[in-house]
Amino acid sequence: MKKAVTIILLCVLIPAVVIGGAILFRDRFYTWLAVLVAILSCVPFLYAFERRDTTSKELMVLAVMIALSVIGRIVFAGIPGFKPVTAITIIVALSFGGEAGFLVGSLSAAVSNFYFGHGPWTPFQMFAWGIIGLLAGLLRKPLQKSRILLCVFGALAGIAYSLTMDVWTVLWSEGTFVLKGYLAAIAAAFPQTVVYAVSNVVFLLLLAGPVGKKLERIKKKEGLFQ
Fold it and tell me: What is the value of pTM for the model shown?
């Protein structure tokens, strides 16, 4: 029951808030939309916090991973699209589950945009990275068994992120969803999409092994995310 409610919350309510807010308010009130997405992303953990003593440790570990994700995005700011955020989000999801992946992905976007600049794109970035984390958690068993499958998922995640941000581009420019405009946005963003996909594969190959092992060790030692 809890898992079903969580999936509905993260996959239905949050995208409805993001898209509905973009259509109704355009470039206004985006800060409130970002705050609302952040709050909704935290709901599963806030609920667990009331039921389990160990959740405070879990939140501390996730805060560290969010910080690393944000730092990584800033360090590679000079290379547009080449960022470790997606890879770190996926790695967290593989060790701790989809809820943790969604939280790390969405809050990495919100926090790092204090450096890169907030705007009406922020809620879409939060949702895009968050949903990648959720999907990685749902597919964690096959992704953990196959490095090739993990790389394929990382590449597809880069494409999915770009396609999601193209939705924002169309809603912002047209005021509603227009298929012709969406296809034009996809074509214009194609080089950036390739960079997204390649960077995800590179960072997964570099980080999935060492970081994943550290997270699994912490998980077992502290009895987290059981």
Answer: 0.86
